[in-house]
Protein: Ig-like domain-containing protein
Organism: Mus musculus
Amino acid sequence: MKTIQAKMHNSISWAIFTGLAALCLFQGVPVRSGDATFPKAMDNVTVRQGESATLRCTIDNRVTRVAWLNRSTILYAGNDKWCLDPRVVLLSNTQTQYSIEIQNVDVYDEGPYTCSVQTDNHPKTSRVHLIVQVSPKIVEISSDISINEGNNISLTCIATGRPEPTVTWRHISPKAVGFVSEDEYLEIQGITREQSGEYECSASNDVAAPVVRRVKVTVNCEWPCQTDPTP
């Protein structure tokens, strides 16, 4: 019975320690570190949405307890898993490295993670920032349109992604006049018959291949757009 109580006491004490260590770190209160190079977590980790992120913390034999936290939430304390997220798994817990993996990463996983250790009853921490990149996606684009020559036209192409994608418009009709716009909105004042055809919207952010969609613009002429050849 005493052994069980002792284990419970140690677990509670460790939970309080890790929570206080994280609280001190994020409120700007200095954590007693002694050796500024220990523990040493990785630099910023950048992964694409849907991939796995590995967070590594270099430690040594001075460590008596170790944990990974996301903000103030304990993910792992030693070999014990504290979070309910099945995507978070322990990869390594040795005398030199303490690593976890977050599988199928999503944008809400982005943010600071803390490697918190205890040596000689002194808490020490090291932080790494997880950056999640997202492929570009066109979420809204104008429908095909028919308009009378001389009127104004506005085409819209809204895209999302991380980093924010660059959106460009290109006129790809055989009669194209080479018009290009680097904006979500394409405004054409007093459209002419030469500006009819297909307009291509491209969204890119270097995370994946650009996403492309097209809009067909039909220009109705007040007089015949093409004169029949004389027999």
